[in-house]
Amino acid sequence: MQFDIQNTESSALYKLLTGTVIPRPIGWISTIDNNGINNLAPFSFFNVVSEDPPHVMFSTVRTGNKNKDTLNNILDNKQFVVNLVTEEVVEQMNTTSQSVASDIDEFELANVTPIDAVFVKPKRVKESLVHFECEMVHHYFIENHQNGGACIIIGKIITMHIDDSILLENHRINLESYKPVARLAGSNYSKLGEIFSIKRQ
């Protein structure tokens, strides 16, 4: 079946895209507002985009033409932390996906521990095994939208924190210890499952 973008409802497009572009890594983004209130929210439109130098991207939807607190905070102070999601913290991550007032600290809401970053103001999630401290270098609001669209954030990684428990020799990651979780569609998530290798030609 062919779906013409102009003649397909946005809700249907969302289901088709999130159901086919899978699995998606989850960027658990922590920010801080100008009053010092912590914010923590998950985004599955997220990935690494460069290693030379290291950059990540994520996008945040603007339902009803309104910015999420994450976006407002980053536009204000240009800083955020990416905390990566594992099986151990997936329930807490899900708790932070709900919409709450901007004066609610999602670290407290999800019962996770805020710890200081080294170079940026937003806190890191202590229970996460990987943190990327980031500075925003670019943002772009998607044009020609019907209900607010989205904003893409590109951030330069200033420093990385990786727990010793998942590090192997030669900077490889122990996937059995790491146990990352990926986003599927609806309420569904996935674990790594079977891993296979194909040598590059």
From TrEMBL:
SMART domains: Flavin_Reduct. Residues 19-172 form the Flavin reductase like domain. Its cofactor is FMN. Belongs to the flavoredoxin family. InterPro entries: Flavin_Rdtase-like_dom, Split_barrel_FMN-bd. Gene3D superfamilies: Electron Transport, Fmn-binding Protein, Chain A. PANTHER family: FLAVIN REDUCTASE LIKE DOMAIN-CONTAINING PROTEIN, FLAVOPROTEIN OXYGENASE. GO terms for molecular function: FMN binding; oxidoreductase activity, acting on the CH-NH group of donors, NAD or NADP as acceptor. Pfam families: Flavin_Reduct (PF01613). It comes from the Bacteria. This is Flavin reductase (DIM6/NTAB) family NADH-FMN oxidoreductase RutF. Keywords: Flavoprotein, FMN. It comes from Flavobacterium aquaticum.
